[in-house]
Structures are given as C-alpha cells and as structure tokens.
Amino acid sequence: MEEHLVINGGRRLEGTVTVKGAKNAALPVMAATLLAAGECTLRRVPDLQDVAVMTDVIRSLGIKVERSNSTLHVCPGAATSPEVPAVLMRQLRASNLVMGPLLGRYHYFRVPYPGGCAIGSRPMDLHLKGFRALGAEITESQGYIEARTTGLQGTSIYLDFPSVGATENLIMAAVMAEGVTILHNTAREPEIVDLQNFLNGMGARIEGAGQDTIRIEGVRELKGTDYEIIPDRIEAGTFLAAAAGTGGDVFVKDCRAEHILAVLAKLTEMGARVIIKRDGVRLQGPARLKAVDCKTLPYPGFPTDMQPQLMALMTVADGTSVLVESIFENRFKHAAELRRLGADIKIEGRVAVINGVPRLSGGPVEASDLRAGAALVIAGLMASGQTRVEGIAHLDRGYEQLEVRLSSLGADIRRLKAGER
Ligand code: UD1
C-alpha cells in the first residue's frame, strides 16, 4: 500500500546523525564484484531499495549474494547468464553498470535499454562508444543492447562529457582488457575513486581516478577482497541542508567535508556556520537564510543531486536566487510542488529564479523522484503547519529510514499508510 509522510513543520533540528554508505558508490562496486574470481565482502552498504534491486540484478546473473546488516557477501563463481531481465533494468537505471564487467570478463552481454526517466532522457551513447573503441561489436534492436567481443584491447578514449556512469562502465570493461587503456575527460566524483580503490584491492592496476585522465593496465584475473564503501555525500548534504533550513544545529557524523566542498560553500554563503571536524561536519543554521546563485556542474562543482534540496532552501531565503541546472535537462519538477507550499519560483528552460518568501505553509505535495522527495521533506520541515509528502517510494530508493533519523533530530515527521491520519 502506498505510504506517505506527514510533517508538522517549524521544529529546529538538533543533535547528531550518522551518514550511511554511499548509494552511488555501492552500486558500481556491487557491479564490479562480477569481475572477481573470489568472494567479495562489502561493508557499510546502505539498506536501500536501489541496492536491493542491484542485488537482484547480480542474483539474476547466477551469482550468490547474502546480506547481514550493512555487510554484503558476493560469493565467487561464474555468472551463468549474461542477460539482465527487463523488469529489473526498468527499476534501476544504474543496473546498466553490469555492462562493463560482463563485457570485460565474459565478452558478452545482452541488456534491455534503460530508456528515459523522470529527470531527463539520459542516453547511453558514451558508454557504447567507449565499448566499441575497446573492440566490442554492439547491436541495438527491439529495446535491447547486445555486445560481444573476442577480447577487448586497451586504447585511448575521450569522453565528450564527463559522465559518471560511462566512466565507471569503461573502467570496469578495461580492467581485464589486453594492454593499457587511457580514459580522457573522465568524471571525477569520489564514487569513481571508491571504485578504483575497490578494483585495485582486487588486483587491478588503475590510477588517476579523481582526475580527468585515468590509466588502466589490463590484468588477467581479479581476486576477491574486503572493502568498506565511502559515506554518502548527498545524504550528508541533505541533512546539512535540513539543519540550515530549520535554523538548527546538527552534527553530521562521518560526513567527509572534502567530498562536498561546493555544498558547504553555498550553505555558508547562505548564512550557515559550518564547522569541519575530524569525524564529520557540524552546521548551525541562521535565523534567516540569504539568497544565493548556483549552477550545477560535474564534480567538484555543485552536485545536481543536491539541486532540489538547495532550491527548497532558496524558497525562504532573503532575496532572489538564480539556480541553473546544467547536468539534466528536466530536473525542476519539484518546483511545481514547492509552489503549492507558497514558493515563488519561475522556470525558464534550465534556469530557475526564486524569490524568497518569509515562510512556506504546509500542504499536500508529491515527490516525482528521489532528490525531489528530499527537497519536499526539507520544505515540510521549514513550513508552518502540516505537509503531506506522497510518492515516498522514491525516497526509499536513496535514504535509509529518513523519517526515523530526522525524528531523532527533533523533527515531527511520521510515515503513514494510505487512509491513516
Ligand atoms: C550518476 C548518479 C546520479 C547523478 C548523476 C550526475 C549513480 C548511480 N547515479 O548518474 O545520481 O545525478 O551521476 O551526477 O551514480 N549522458 C549522455 N550520454 C551518456 C551518458 C550520460 O549524454 O552515454 C548525459 C546524461 O544524459 C546527463 C549527463 O550526461 O545529462 C550526466 O549523466 P551521468 O554523469 O552519466 O549520470 P549517471 O551516471 O546516469
């Protein structure tokens, strides 16, 4: 039954919350276990719907995966089926990350085309161009992508855009290729560094992740390993934004400040006090936020996955904010919902102009995607009166027990089933 969140806004958030493992690091690392000849143990794996779907994807390929608390064991053994069922692919776009490892180790895959999604068309051209350059023959027909090779050959590949997924897929394909592959204009996200560290722990020879050029020397075999996933920088940023918006005082434990410098800079510019500690980040929100301008960019720029949460803050900031979304072409769906709560937002293409109002007022809203959901929760925490957030299945894809953890910081937020009041 469809659930929703009910938030009575206006409470300051106070206390400590601990960040879980990064969803966007766990997903590629899980895909990379397909390359291992031995058992892999992954620690600090968040308990999320997206991770559950990726687990099913790996199982569908014939590999045994067991979970106990935040640890995943992926058992050794060859994949028995290099095909991902369409029903799983539709649920999780990131399941396309099995393409690289399947091609690299098994020289074949057949997966359904992931298609569009709520935030834009999200094509796969950069992934496929890279696979072709490595020597794969690719056919696209009847909604499926099929790739085969007699053996991948290291080469030099320039990415037209620093795509996160394409960078990860090409690293995973090249890691068992013959010779050296150099990837140029790669994405520099911390999750890519995490993937490199994991693969090197398995015996791969990769260097340069975190920079715009990555060098991969192919190896014949990769062994199993034991690895801890990095903390989730977007989850951390979401808690910090919620603290900033409620004039709160929150310590986000295990938040790695160096992974979210762009977010911390914006929150500081908006008037929050950010205190970086050895084991996390403390944020004290101001009585009223100040308007700022911001543009999303590939890392280390301001992350598109924090854009909706930032927009929520801008709705009540003093002055006019201009927010530009340069990564996805259709990622302002939350604006219409924020308007229902009294926000003054004008959208023109990829630009949003937000005139801050003194206060939002609670009402019914619906999340169209994961981070839009986070933005609406923050809006509800800041608003006067009651906000009801529908569509929270999106939130469960990327936040573990969000309402429980916000409650522990003093928020008045509950999860209810349809019909419950
Ligand atoms: C990853 C993140 C997602 C985040 C995004 C951008 C994961 C599991 N997901 O998604 O949360 O919002 O990075 O930071 O890590 N593009 C192409 N052709 C391609 C591939 C991408 O044109 O072949 C375009 C996309 O349409 C989009 C842009 O590149 O406009 C960024 O996409 P990309 O970096 O690939 O994002 P994902 O890896 O899908």
Task: Give the secondary structure arrangement, pairings included.
Blueprint: E1 3-8, E2 14-18, H1 23-32, E3 40-43, H2 49-60, E4 65-68, E5 71-74, H3 86-91, H4 99-106, E6 108-112, H5 125-133, E7 137-141, E8 144-148, E9 156-158, H6 164-174, E10 180-184, H7 190-201, E11 205-207, E12 213-217, E13 226-228, H8 233-245, E14 249-253, H9 261-269, E15 273-277, E16 280-284, E17 293-295, H10 307-314, E18 320-324, H11 333-340, E19 344-348, E20 351-355, E21 364-366, H12 370-382, E22 386-390, H13 393-398, H14 402-408, E23 412-417
Parallel strand pairs: 2-14, 3-13, 9-10, 17-18, 21-22
Antiparallel strand pairs: 1-22, 1-23, 3-5, 4-5, 6-8, 7-8, 10-12, 11-12, 14-16, 15-16, 18-20, 19-20
Helix pairs in contact: 1-2, 1-7, 4-6, 5-6, 6-7, 8-10, 8-12, 10-12, 11-12
